[in-house]
Specification:
Number of strands: 15
Strand content: over 45%
Oligomer: single chain
Order of helices and strands: EEEEEEEEEEEEEEE
Distance between the termini: 86 Å
Largest sheet: 13 strands, antiparallel
């Protein structure tokens, strides 16, 4: 038998170290999923979907950045020029409809632009949201309403708020708007 002193150079078929993620990331897209190995990125086009533990994300476009352990998603313009397939982020029993989202797998932090979510008996709208953890959010230009429309007829508006899910919403000065 012949022995070799050459080291085994087999590289695992993976874009990310398995120790970084707590569970497997499953993803799907209707049109295509090009992968850029140099940048450690995957791009999901049309009816894109990701599952990661109790987190799921649906959107028209999703970008997975394995180097940063992040996912970025936004909607797409349809043939009439309207935004469709806007990102819908779900974690556990909470659902967030957004215009744009960036989520970090390892820290579970998110930066969200324009969100609508149900909170108790009402709906919370916000322009820019920083998700600190599963239960704490910081929201810029926030509105609270019991109207279930995307553009409500009435709401209470505050320039900033801190939301502790299931506990309280803390705001500065707030104003009531009708129609």
């Amino acid at each position: 038998s012949i022995e070799s002193n050459v080291a085994d150079t087999t590289i695992a078929d993976s874009l990310i170290s398995p120790s970084v993620l707590k569970t497997m990331v499953n993803y799907y897209a209707e049109d295509s999923i090009p992968i850029d190995v140099q940048k450690n990125k995957a791009y999901l086009y049309n009816l894109a979907h990701i599952d990661y533990g109790d987190v799921s994300l649906d959107a028209g476009y999703i970008e997975l950045d394995w180097a940063k352990n992040e996912v970025y998603a936004h909607g797409v313009l349809d043939s009439t020029g309207k935004m469709s397939q806007v990102p819908v982020f779900k974690q556990g029993d909470k659902t967030y409809e957004t215009d744009e989202i960036r989520y970090n797998f390892s820290s579970s932090k998110a930066l969200i632009k324009t969100v609508i979510t149900r909170e108790g008996e009402g709906y919370l709208h916000g322009d820019v949201i920083k998700r600190e953890d599963e239960n704490t959010f910081y929201i810029k230009n926030t509105s609270f309403t019991t109207c279930n429309r995307r553009h409500p007829d009435f709401w209470i508006n505050a320039t900033k708020a801190k939301v502790i899910v299931g506990d309280r919403i803390i705001t500065g000065p707030a104003n009531l708007y009708v129609a």
